[in-house]
Amino acid sequence: MKKKLLLVMVGVITLTLVGGSAWSAMQIRKRPKPAAEEGGAKAPPGAATKPKAPAKPPTEIKPGKAAAPIKKAAPRRGSTSSSKKKRKRVDTTSFSGSVDYVRGRKVLVKLDKATKLDSRFNVYDIRLRKRGSLKVVKVLSQELYLCKLLRGSADEGDWLAKETERGAYTRIKHTKSLRAYKEFLTVFPASKFKDRVARMVFRQLLRTKYPAAPGSVINGKIVLAEKVGQEVVLSRAKIKLDRFIISMTDEAGNFYIEGIPQLDHAIKVSLSIYDEKFKMAKKVEIALPAGSTSELDQTLTINLTPTYLVGRVVDDNGNPVRGAQVWTSPYTMEKITDEKGEFKIWRKKKLDASGEPTEGDEPLMGRDYEIYAYKKGYGAEKTTLSAKSFTENAVGDIAVSRQDPVSEGLPELAVNFRDNLDLMQFVFSAGAGPKINR
Predict the structure, then answer these.
(1) Each residue of 204-238: b (16+ CB within 10 Å) or e?
(2) How many folded domains does the chain comprise?
(3) Quick one: which of 43, 256, 378, 426 could link to 400 by a disulfide (CB 3.0–4.6 Å)?
(4) C-alpha dist (Å) from residue 205 to 202, 259, 353
């Protein structure tokens, strides 16, 4: 106790002797840390401190002009402002029945209107949330129907909305299911998608049941839209029915298709040629009847795939020559080069029995050609090419040389026309002398 009193007395005496300023100097102050220590890394002694960047001055707004509004970033496609996606509203007027009883996958429903078998309904709960879908499998009475739950779930009291025509078409169009296609045509016999779905049925039947017995038959032949001087081979050309290569022509251009499956709905399908040598002159569609087989005759009019001679006319420096005349031997239709000096020839003049040109023209065919190029002021040049039929043949560049005196320059004249102008009017008739710009 005595020791504690002694320490208190010493402290009081010390405070009395020391002044206020001296007491302030004795206080322990916290030393501020350098910037390098605050970041965690110590700056080496003697290192230069990095000067701070000057603050960016505020943008000056001129009087009379309003500040430009800040543009907000456009939302991404498919993104929503809220975290939850907005649910599509259900039209309650489309409800046409309700669920009465559920046992496993079997559902007993009550419908307001008479419904066909295989009709589909979407199931909604009392909060209008879609729960599943079902299909009618049996008619029990005028209002009661036995359904099969296809996906999801159902409970007593749930609402039913019939599947729409567009919704059904969207569901089946990529399924490649013959059963799904036929169900659609049964439920929606007058649909605007009827022709498309009937064509899907036809394609699926060709994939799975071709050739069928009995089946429809098509007898056909291909003919050229215009005659050509050379012989064209018509054999081994592929014939395409809708999307399927189904036959091939013989030497005379005839083809035969049999075993086309019988259809429940009449349709029109395209018939065309699939060959690199030929192209269809016009679109051809054939009508296949419903409920029976038929035998059809069809002629396909075709054009030859063009044979092209392609090249360019240039001068001695390699620059394109515009407006040059280009033709070949045997005779072809004359062509004029464009601004790039390029030309393309695909027609030729018709020749008679003696080889002389006659009236009219015809498609170009593959053979050996001599190609000529000419323009006034240039010399005519020639090149040769062995062309192939039904493709593009590159002639390359044909170089022509200038033949006029412009490139050589005008010679100097020893006579001064200005000094002898008075004499010249007696020698030359009026308007025949040189015209001098004063």
Answers:
(1) bbbeeebebeebbebebebebeeeeeeebebeebb
(2) 4
(3) 378
(4) 5, 11, 53
The one-letter code for the residue type at 427 is: V
Domain encompassing residue 328: 306-438
SS3 366: coil
How sure is the predictor about 405, in pLDDT bands with cuts at 50, 70 and 90? low
Strand partners, 263: 290
pLDDT score recorded for residue 64: 47
Rounded distance, CA 145 to CA 158, Å?
A: 15
Closest CA to 169 of 142, 139, 199: 199
- What contacts 73, CB < 8 A, 6 or more positions away? none
DSSP one-letter code for 92 = G
CA distances from residue 166 to 16, 70, 149, 173, 192 in whole angstroms, order as listed: 101, 44, 21, 10, 9
Whether 419 maps to a domain, the answer reads yes
pLDDT tens-digit series, residues 356-394: 888 888 899 999 999 999 999 998 999 999 999 999 999
Please give the distance of CA 226 from its chain centroid, rounded to a whole number: 34
Token reading at 182: 């036929």
Contact 197, 177 (CB under 8 A): no
Q: Are residues 292 and 420 in the same domain?
A: no
Tally of CA atoms within 13 A in the half-sphere of 129 that contains its CB: 7
Question: Same domain for 127 and 249?
Answer: no
Q: Are residues 147 and 173 in the same domain?
A: no
Q: Which of 272, 290, 325 is nearest to 199 (CA)?
A: 290
Look at strands 392-399 and 308-314 and give their pairing.
parallel
Chosen domain end from 304, 323, 347? 304
Q: What CATH number corresponds to the domain at position 234?
A: 2.60.40.4130
First to last CA, the chain: 135
Task: Indicate whether 350 and 431 sit together in one domain.
Answer: yes
**In the 8-state DSSP scheme, what is residue 291?**
S
In 3D space, the residue among 390, 345, 331, 347 whose CA is nearest the CA of residue 366 turns out to be 390
